[in-house]
Amino acid sequence: MLLGVASLLTISALLAIGILLAGHFGRTQGRILGSTALLAGYGLVALPAAFLLDQGHCRRLALATASLAALAAALALAGIWSGSETLGKLVGSATAFALAGAQTSALTARRREGDPAAVRRLFTASCGTTLVAASAFAVFIWIQPNGSLFPRLFGSLVVFDLLLVVLQPILARTRPVGPAHHLRVVLATGETLETVTEGGDLAAATATAIRRLERSGERVARIEIDLPD
Question: Which of 147, 154, 164 is nearest to 96 (CA)?
Answer without folding.
Answer: 154
